[in-house]
Amino acid sequence: MKQLVFATANKNKIAEVKLKLGEGYNFLSLDDIGCTEEIPETTGTLEGNALQKARYVKDTYGYDCFAEDSGLEIDALDNRPGVDTAHYSGSRDATANMTKVLNELDGQVQRNARFRAVIALIQGDREELFEGRVDGYIAKEMAGEGGFGYDPIFIPEEHKLTFAQLPQEIKKGISHRSRAVAKLVTYLKQ
Ligand code: IMP
Q: Domain total for the chain?
């Protein structure tokens, strides 16, 4: 069976890909290969950071690998927070991060935004990128209890509710991450 490392410590993400790809691959997490150090993410773009993480694993541990980076891009903020999404306010606190975004958009009518996920896959000497995105806009205030991160302020364009108000099954079906994973899975199954 082919071995493939998913360069994440997040067990939920690994379970999601495993479920979609079936039995053809033996998935390994960073824990499984003994990688406990922080992998650098310093390129300034989602594509660059995903590639940087995948190359780090390939170069350091020798495994075929894929890595993901995702973030929120807001038109009126020149696509910020982007690669700084996880710690936009200076901390990883979701409420502080959303408050910073809402303050920066105060009085702003143009609130278009998107979540984007990029997956970088390295097999042998071949590198591939897969992108998933969900377009929408930033709400005027936080609403909803579900999900995580910026879900209470992101309204996908195909719905009138925030990601945190929508049933999580609906969010998962249209999310940037599930769309990027779907492209990866289609490629790996070819
Ligand atoms: P990661 O690269 O998947 O860890 O995502 C980076 C950051 O983007 C997370 O810490 C969250 O703040 C935010 N983020 C990514 N995906 C979502 C989502 O589906 N909903 C809300 N926030 C998200």
A: 1
Could you write out the DSSP letters of every residue in 99-147?
HHHHHHTTT-S--EEEEEEEEEEEETTEEEEEEEEEEEEE-SS---SSS
Residue 84 annotated among the catalytic residues of the structure: no
Instruction: Indicate the top mutation candidate among 16, 66, 72, 145 to test ligand 1's pocket, ranked by most ligand atoms within 8 A of CB.
Output: 72
Confidence of residue 15 (pLDDT cuts 50, 70, 90): confident
CATH code at position 169: 3.90.950.10
pLDDT confidence band for 33 (50 / 70 / 90): very high
Dump strand ranges (E) for the chain. Answer: 2-6, 25-28, 65-74, 112-123, 126-138, 154-156
In whole angstroms, give the CA distance from residue 85 to residue 92: 9
> Domain span at residue 127?
2-188
CB–CB of 4/63 below 8 Å?
A: yes
Strand partners, 128: 121
Ligand 1 centroid to residue 107 C-alpha, Å = 25
Q: How far is the centre of ligand 1, averaged over its atoms, from the C-alpha of 61 (Å)?
A: 27
